[in-house]
Specification:
Number of strands: 26
Number of helices: 0
Radius of gyration: 19 Å
Helix content: under 10%
Order of helices and strands: EEEEEEEEEEEEEEEEEEEEEEEEEE
Distance between the termini: 17 Å
């Protein structure tokens, strides 16, 4: 089974590490997916049962969401998921998210403006690999509160898992909450609190996307925390499939003090008993990417390291993404080195 949330990108260079560093990696020629008239902002990718790619992205001018899938020889004409009059939320740092389980596809979208209660989180579902989608399911019925920045994953039975930021009126006291479905997205359980672990005054960093990672009955919602402007990465732990979150720990010890939101969140991947988290921080004075390893059993951080920070001429890193299949994992990110924008890809075969 393969879950992927990587950016669809051009690869500038490739690094290898691990016991099989001699393995050869060959990329096919770059294939066009959508014309520039589709705006093509912040793409997200997943795969169907055969491993064929499916891509969703944001159209800022239309405030709409588009989807395209591989048809065997190329990508089909993009399909607009959101109907006319449905204004979707999106930007260069947030937007629709996708996850898949075989030929079951889930896409979450936030309807705008978020100050209206009926503009909730919407889940688009397909059970035929994205060829057709059902009418969307609404969730985040929270009356006087507001919902924001939804993200989605899938449990081992193929049911969708959704997390989002929930705030009070006027964007007061943002917090990460979680809601699961037990009927393949037809309905959702009431949301439960997944964050607020750093202290009684903690909040979610309100413009930083979060991430869900799940395996068996374990669910982690990982997010950027805000405790008196310390904006480190935390993860909430659930051992009952997301029905409750009983603990949360810091998986980032940068102690980054930032007076405003950096609009950059974590991404996660679980292999075995380990939660792998990639994220950006400026705690050491420079924008750098990091990887953290956390034990799901002990709920303790195993290691915490900078991610490829010795590159000559490096001035900035951001927006790391991680995906994998079993013991093979890859991390992609954006960086600036020698005044040139680069998109590295780091691959681990073990």
């Amino acid at each position: 089974m393969f879950y992927s949330k990587c950016f669809l990108v051009f690869v500038w260079f490739v690094c290898f590490f691990g016991s099989k560093a001699e393995a050869q990696l060959v990329f096919n020629p770059v294939i066009g997916l959508a014309l520039s008239t589709f705006d093509n902002l912040r793409p997200r990718i997943s795969v169907d049962r055969q491993g064929e790619p499916m891509v969703v992205w944001y159209h800022a001018l239309e405030q709409s969401v588009y989807f395209s899938r591989w048809n065997g020889t190329g990508f089909g004409t993009p399909n607009r998921l959101t109907p006319i009059g449905f204004n979707a939320g999106g930007a260069s740092w947030m937007g629709p998210e996708i996850s898949s389980f075989g030929d079951t596809v889930y896409i979450v979208v936030k309807k705008m403006p978020e100050t209206i209660d009926s503009n909730r989180v919407f889940l688009f579902r397909s059970f035929d690999g994205g060829n057709t989608f059902l009418s969307p399911t609404q969730l985040a019925f929270i009356n006087d509160s507001l919902s924001w920045l939804p993200t989605v994953s899938v449990d081992n039975a193929g049911h969708p898992l959704v997390a989002f930021i929930k705030t009070g009126p006027g964007f007061t006291h943002p917090e990460w909450v979680f809601s699961r479905s037990n009927d393949y997205g037809a309905s959702f359980e009431p949301d439960v609190l997944a964050g607020e672990w750093s202290g009684p005054n903690s909040e979610a960093c309100d413009c930083c996307p979060g991430s869900i990672a799940a395996t068996a009955n374990r669910v982690n919602v990982t997010y950027r925390d805000n405790l008196n402007d310390v904006r480190d990465i935390w993860s909430g732990f659930s051992a009952d499939g997301g029905n409750s979150f009983t603990n949360g720990i810091a998986i980032d010890n940068n102690n980054w003090m930032a007076m405003s939101c950096p609009a950059s969140g974590p991404d996660t991947y679980i292999h075995g008993d380990t939660l792998y988290t990639v994220f950006m921080s400026r705690g050491n004075g420079s924008f750098r990417n990091y990887i953290s390893k956390t034990s799901l059993t002990s709920q303790a951080m195993i290691s915490f390291n900078a991610l490829a920070d010795t590159i000559v001429g490096l001035t900035q890193q951001n927006l790391p993404r991680i995906a994998g299949s079993g013991s093979v994992a890859a991390i992609a990110w954006r960086q600036v080195a020698n005044a040139t924008v680069q998109l590295p890809l780091l691959i681990n075969f073990d």
